[in-house]
Amino acid sequence: MQANKHIHLIGICGTAMASLAGLLQQKGHRITGSDQAAYPPMSNLLASLGIPIAEPFAEANLQPAPDLTIIGNAISRGNAELEHVLDRKLPFTSMAQVIHDEFLAGRESLVVSGTHGKTTTTSMLAWIYEVASRRHAGFTPSFLIGGVAENFGTSFQYKPGKAFIIEGDEYDTAFFDKGPKFMHYFPDALILTHVEFDHADIYLDLDAVKTAFRRLVNLVPRRGRIVAFDASPHLRDCVQKALCPVEFYGARPDSAWQVVDLVQQGGIMQWKVLRYGAPWAEFRMQLAGEHNAFNATAAAALAVGQGVPLAAITEALASFRSVKRRLEVRAQVHGVTIIDDFAHHPTAIRETLRALRGAYPGARLWAVLEPRSNTLRRNVFEHELVESLALADQIVMAQVFKSEAVPEAERLQPERVIAALEQQGKPAHLIPGVAGIVARIAAEARPGDVVAILSNGGFDGIYEKLPHALQERVENQPSQDHATHGAAPMQEPRG
pTM for the full model? Predict the structure, then answer.
């Protein structure tokens, strides 16, 4: 596609679509977009790039007609702009197809995929390449990540180097292409972090998910490589017929890349890696959680196999700063730490709470959950959700997000989750609205508490409302709070 085309994105405020808009603009195209209502953080990103957002959807947004229209995967038949595109036979395509045609063709495609951990691992791999590029020619990366990598302050980058690092999403592509996005990415090397049932709105069962990943594995050429997590039995099934080398990573002694001597002190982790049983590397990282040590090891294994020097990998991991909304500290108010985590699945919730236990030893840990993802809104993992939430000391659940969109027979029943937690002796509460949740936590939190807010959406502004309420309590009603709720009054922590 020649530069200076006018490309219009329908549904531009989605994380991936906004990032794609930035990539296309960096390549020289004129970009416009539309959405039902512009919303942050992507609306802020687009504004900073000078990319206009038309709202709401309307035929007039496509006049004059663009050279190409990209249809977001959240856009369905009946959308005014989509119908106009079809009626007028305007050229259109999907996000994933444009990524292939514009950015991956002729490059080294490095794909990170899996049910959990792919955003963080993609960010690690991109940062490893960036650090390597400062001392060695040929490693400057382009990348597209499903979140904002804090080291870069962005979710995308377009550079002339050979490597393109991309998060491989198993979600569907567009209304006219119901296959996974990652089937368009044709990896030269592939990281597989985990395979588990997820996206219950588009996958019937675990077998359907495994079929998708098997097809991804089948795209890797014989000269390629797959780096795969050793503790995921379903993943092992998916790579059985790979025609390229498969290198497992994890804690198993028979794995190519074995993590040993893992020590976590607060938010800092240190560990060693054995390569086929022999000492290979020692890493240090300012990020909590055993799962993140595994993620980092996967990124390191892929990078060194592509020729990145070990010294650059070690330096990059030591300076890695995580991803927005992954164990992100949003506020610290008079000794109460508020954590934001993009928890979308019971396994992700479990690993987040385990990581926080290690990072904040001795703290009273709150889990505040909004069942919002298409998997969490369903009852398919109700038992596993109880097990994960039970790792916290205090549990608060909100109502199921847009519960009416899920058939009643399939819908998660928060009352059952709360009852199961109470049977285990856990203080658990179902509070439908954010106002009530904020009021309860503000009344009962005490210095040293860690409040993990678990949602893959905006959660009605709780990230701003809770710190404000905690601050207001300290300033206005500390003694009354103590008398009314029996909790220790909020005080500045002593040094």
Answer: 0.83
